[in-house]
Each structure stands twice: as structure tokens, then as C-alpha cells.
Amino acid sequence: xxxxxxxxxxxxxxxPGRKGYTLPPNDVPPKDVTELIPEKFLRKVPANLPETSExxxxxxxxxxxxxxxxxxxxxxxxxxxxxKYNPKVNEVTSSMPGFRNTHPxxxxxxxxxxxxxxxxxxxxxxxxxxxxxxxxxxAAGAQGELTGLLMIRAYHDKQGNPRKKxxxxxxxxxxxxxxxxxxxxxxxxxxxxxxxxxxxxxxxxVVDEDVAGIMLTNPNTLxxxxxxxxxxxxMMRDVGALLYMDGANLNALLGISRPGDMGxxxxxxxxxxxxSTPHGGGGPGSGPVAVSERLEPFLPVPRVIKxxxxxxxxxxxxxxxxxxxxxxxxxxxxxxxxxYMRMHGPEGLRGISENAIINANYLLARLRDHxxxxxxxxxxxxxxxxxxRQKAMGVRxxxxxxxxLDYGFHSPTVxxxxxxxxxxxxxxxxTETKETLDAFADALIKxxxxxxxxxxxxxQAPHTTPVKRLDDVRAAKEINLCYKE
Length: 485
Ligand SMILES: *Cc1c(COP(=O)(O)O)cnc(C)c1O
Hints:
The chain is α/β, with parallel strands linked by helices.
């Protein structure tokens, strides 16, 4: 007997005629399908769908789900992404029938609860960010960026000149320059100085009246607070430019400092990072934007307002950039984030950031003698090491990332930010115990020893996972989602 090394595809399990469902008997007169759907829209051959029993389907997907590393299975210190756990109570509230079953076209008088939740959530986000108003529509941080930039463009347009450039530091996330380009601006790079923050001299060289704004991440992608933000704000205001904050790292600031107080006009808030809603494939995401008075008139519509004790959808903002998402954004995520924030309350939210900062600094203290630290400054909720010493011995950051899987850990973010060669960007989050942090530090220290004593072990890792190293470039370029007999 040969035991297959991989799980069968669901199509390989399939047997013609096998079913995993039972439907009640039909109690309406049957109709011919061609009476209901025009002939030209009908399939010529039946869809190639797998046919299985119910428990075959359940086992198939449960087995697959445990082959992958995920936040419910193990530590996931993916820098910049804030992979904190997803509280199960979020799932309870977001599946309450009143939220889950509400059709987006439900009239206002029958959706007061959903509207109230959106109104309250936008209010909490403006309070946390120290800004004037918020839109919950964007579906992710990147779409929040585009939304913010389109508002900045609308603002300058209204003054008579949309301007040409947006300044982006060299430590920025790749979505920043991409969003700048999509918004019709030219992305102008500004360098980082030796302490890993914006180089003010270089900034002085690129600032002029053609600049519409700057996009800053604070704390930045090195986990370092941009302490010169007040000077940067002044330089921008002097030329009439606006300030956009990439709020992906808000996990470090809750209840401690506010983008609005730092002078920002707009911030996107990744609910799937800071406020515990699931990421990516487990998503969808949500990236609300909060804005200052300058940008408020340009917010997407509709906005939820409260008048005479009722909640209403208000479309009456002539300067609005319009809609950026169908209906009101990813509503289920809004319920989850709202739950998380109400569960913690203001003190609890501050505690999140304090613990995130302590955890990151603890891990850094344990690891700093074993890996290179290019920017040695106090860090906030994450930090960036480099595998450059290991590379000199023939092992790269990617090899270390793969070896970590053998120890049961997801890798940190690697090769980002770009200003650190062989970057290992580590973000433990506030929800991890000291035992987990220690086990992770021990694993990285052990791998560093293996690099010296048993290099092949690292170079050929992972050894314990269902698949070894995949050709991920090819997987992205030659997507094949079809099953062929
Ligand atoms: C995650 C992230 C983004 C993009 O956010 P998405 O929600 O993934 O679209 C932008 N900037 C930084 C610094 C990030 O970490």
C-alpha cells in the first residue's frame, strides 16, 4: 500500500452522486430552468464540482487548516502586521442575527442599532486619533491611504491647485508610494538619518510648493517614534502641505499619544491590526480613516449622523470624494472592532499599547547580542534586527525564517523595511506571555548557534512542515486554480 505524502485534493475525494446536504421536499411547482434564466446564460456542461459527504468536507478543511501556521495555533510575530489574537467574543457579537442578517438596503428606521454602532465606532476612532471625524468605508489600510490621498487632492483642488508630489520616507511600507501613484501624485523619497527617523536636512531639500503632503508612519516601520514630528509639521505647514499618518502602528500609541495632536490631517486605522479583527484570508479587512477639520468636508459619503435621537445616513456633503466601498464598508469587521474596544475601555486600550511596548523591548533585550541591530534607539511595539552577521557566514534571513517553522513559530517579517539589509522585523504584540516570548527568543538564539555549528540544518529548513520550500514566485506568476483530470 502506498500512503500519499500529501492530502488528497477535494476533487480526488469526490465520488459521483455523493452528497453532503439534505434539502426538504420541494413544496412549489417545479419550473423548467429555461423559463427562469435566458438560454444564453445557461451552462452547456455541468460545473465541475466535487461531490462528497458532509464529514469528508469538514475533515478535509480542518486538516488543511492545521497544516498552515495561524494565530490560533502559534506565535506569529509578523512585524508591521500586528498579529494579535482574535477574541472569540468578537465572533459572538458579529453573528448576532440583528447584525448578521441586516440587509444593507434595510431602511434607516429598521437599522438603528447598526447605524448606532457605526456612529459610536467612528466617534471612538476620532477620540483615539485626536481628529475631527471618520469614515469607516475603506476595506484595508491601503484603501484608507488612497482615500486619504484623494481627500488631500480634493482639498488642494478646492484651493485652486491639486499640486504634484507627496513625500514618502525610505522606510515606508510599499503601499504608501503605490497609493500616491494611484492618487495621481509623484512619490518623492526622503531619507532616514542615523537614528532611523526622517532626515530633516533631506526633507528640507525636497519640500516646496508643489508638495501636496507627506505620508509618515509613526512609530515608523523600525518601531521608532518620529520624535521630530513637530518640526516636520512646521515644514509642511510653511508650504501649505498636509500631513498623512499611516496608522498601521497604532498598536503602540493607544491612549498615550494621538495623531491629531502631532499635527496630522488624516490617519488610516487598520482594524485588523490594532483592533483584533482577522487578517487577510480570514478577513476581510477594514481601514477606516480619521481626518482633521481641513479634510472633513471631503470625507466619503454616506456619513452616519445623529439628529433628534435618531441615526441617519447623510449624503449631503457637496465636496465629498464620494463612495470608496459598496454600502458602508465591511460591516462585520466594524462590529468586531467595536466589541474589542468596548471590552477594553479607555484604560484597557492604553494597557494594550503599554504591554505591546514592554513585550517588544523585552524581546529586543534578549536578542540584541545575537543579531545585528542597525538602529539602536528605544523602540515602541516592534523592532528590526538584521541577519547580516549570519549572512557573512552563508545563511540568509529567509533561511532563519524557514528554520523557525521547525521550532513551531511563524517567522518575523523579513526583508522589510528596505533600509535594513537582511531585515528580521519582530512584533510580539501585547497578548503573548513571557513564556512564549522566551521560547521564541531561545529558538532564535539556538538558530544563531546552528548557523555556526550545523549550517545545513538551517539551509535546508524547514524539516517538520508538510511542505518544504515552495517556489513562491512561480506560485504568484502562474496561478493555477483549476483541477484537471
Ligand atoms: C499593513 C500596513 C499597510 C497596509 O495595510 P493593509 O491593511 O494591509 O492594506 C500600510 N502601512 C504599513 C506600515 C503596514 O504595516
